[in-house]
Amino acid sequence: METLHIIGGGLAGSEAAWQAAKMGINVVIHEMRPTVGTFAHKTGNLAEMVCSNSFRSDDSEQNAVGLLHWEMRAAGGLIMEMADAHRLPAGGALAVDRDPFAAAVTARLTEHPNVSLQPGEMTVLPDSGHWIIATGPLTSTALGAAIQAETGADRLAFFDAIAPIVYTDSIDMSVTWAQSRYDKGDTEEERKAYLNCPMTKAQYEAFIDALLEAEKTEFHDGETATYFDGCLPIEVMAERGRETLRHGPMKPVGLTNAHNPSEKPYAVVQLRRDNALGTLYNIVGFQTKMKYGAQSTVFRMIPGLENASFARLGGIHRNTFINSPTLLDDRMRLRSRPNIRFAGQVTGVEGYVESAAMGLLAGRMAAAEILGRDLAPPPPETATGALITHITGGAEAKTFQPMNVNFGLFPPVEGLRGGRRGRKDRYKAYTDRAKTFWREWLDAQGAS
């Protein structure tokens, strides 16, 4: 039986390998780290998370990404299994202890009899065999050039910014308080999963001034700064209007200052626990392209962080993705070279979960092909199906940009009330329908 080769051991590549191996296929994962490093990665582990430790909402009835969690769990996904095993309190979100999570994914894959790991950088597109390219947002320059040469189209790139991480013992707990927005969570620990730093109007205005004046990272010649709106640097948001941050990551709604309940904060900066020990917190939504010295100065203007010590400052890096609507078929194959599939963020999905879901799909499709079967994509009524439909033809190729899963990608459910008041019933109808279609798609494969 032929072997499946996967380039890239991130979330998508790891999930693709797991799914194919479970179907009895021999898999080789080609991972350049740690031999060849990247700006953002710190280890050689598979499935290393770099931008955040959150998989976002885990609500499978009212949230599209929570539904995607449900679908991956139902399909025996390794990423979801390990995320659940290394879960941290995060209100209604699924956050993980990132280093043990990556170590556990690495162990499960390397221990599987059908999986082997081959270190080293791949620099050319293979002419034969079964391949999945899952190199993610930090595709190497050489491989990126090979992809560009093959497709005949310019690579599309935007810049992905990383939020800073603060040591817990450097946070002033007499200023901050523990509370998830709107007290979300089933347990007391979940309801207090975030630390909140309140700002007065004067503090907020001074903070915005400092953001706008801070020294920023400059782009190299030939680079274009086209940001994905779901991961905008805070200073770019501030440039769009002085109130933008106060209606985004610094919104004060759903929070009550435990130290002064009668006084409503003008803005709030939230910190989310970043590891199981509780020794690290990341600043939620604070991706940045400020230079390191400016970051230390500006972030210490946040009440409670005046003496903050940073385990990691923010950063910025190129995020590469292909124009999937023009380049891929609905089996995720490169039209010009059908022996190669693409998976993960390089296909133009945005987010850890979405990337892993595309890996799950590519792994199953490639394995089915090796076994002499054709696996059709899941129905567009499912979260996974809505994503693959969007990136392989549903999106407008001329304006194609990375996309998170959202209910706007799903076919409408007829007869439901529109608008905000009907949203709860509408979302529940979307997720109920999706779960039925997803189970049927799995059952048709003879495995779940």
Automatic annotation (TrEMBL):
<keyword id="KW-0274">FAD</keyword>
<dbReference type="InterPro" id="IPR004417">
    <property type="entry name" value="TrmFO"/>
</dbReference>
<keyword id="KW-0963">Cytoplasm</keyword>
<keyword id="KW-0285">Flavoprotein</keyword>
<keyword id="KW-0489">Methyltransferase</keyword>
<dbReference type="GO" id="GO:0002098">
    <property type="term" value="P:tRNA wobble uridine modification"/>
</dbReference>
<dbReference type="GO" id="GO:0030488">
    <property type="term" value="P:tRNA methylation"/>
</dbReference>
<dbReference type="Pfam" id="PF01134">
    <property type="entry name" value="GIDA"/>
</dbReference>
<keyword id="KW-0521">NADP</keyword>
<dbReference type="InterPro" id="IPR036188">
    <property type="entry name" value="FAD/NAD-bd_sf"/>
</dbReference>
<comment type="function">
    <text>NAD-binding protein involved in the addition of a carboxymethylaminomethyl (cmnm) group at the wobble position (U34) of certain tRNAs, forming tRNA-cmnm(5)s(2)U34.</text>
</comment>
<dbReference type="GO" id="GO:0047151">
    <property type="term" value="F:tRNA (uracil(54)-C5)-methyltransferase activity, 5,10-methylenetetrahydrofolate-dependent"/>
</dbReference>
<comment type="function">
    <text>Catalyzes the folate-dependent formation of 5-methyl-uridine at position 54 (M-5-U54) in all tRNAs.</text>
</comment>
<comment type="similarity">
    <text>Belongs to the MnmG family. TrmFO subfamily.</text>
</comment>
<feature type="domain" description="MnmG N-terminal">
    <location>
        <begin position="4"/>
        <end position="373"/>
    </location>
</feature>
<keyword id="KW-0819">tRNA processing</keyword>
<protein>
    <recommendedName>
        <fullName>Methylenetetrahydrofolate--tRNA-(uracil-5-)-methyltransferase TrmFO</fullName>
        <ecNumber>2.1.1.74</ecNumber>
    </recommendedName>
</protein>
<keyword id="KW-0520">NAD</keyword>
<dbReference type="GO" id="GO:0005829">
    <property type="term" value="C:cytosol"/>
</dbReference>
<dbReference type="InterPro" id="IPR020595">
    <property type="entry name" value="MnmG-rel_CS"/>
</dbReference>
<dbReference type="GO" id="GO:0050660">
    <property type="term" value="F:flavin adenine dinucleotide binding"/>
</dbReference>
<feature type="binding site">
    <location>
        <begin position="8"/>
        <end position="13"/>
    </location>
    <ligand>
        <name>FAD</name>
    </ligand>
</feature>
<keyword id="KW-0808">Transferase</keyword>
<dbReference type="InterPro" id="IPR040131">
    <property type="entry name" value="MnmG_N"/>
</dbReference>
<dbReference type="InterPro" id="IPR002218">
    <property type="entry name" value="MnmG-rel"/>
</dbReference>
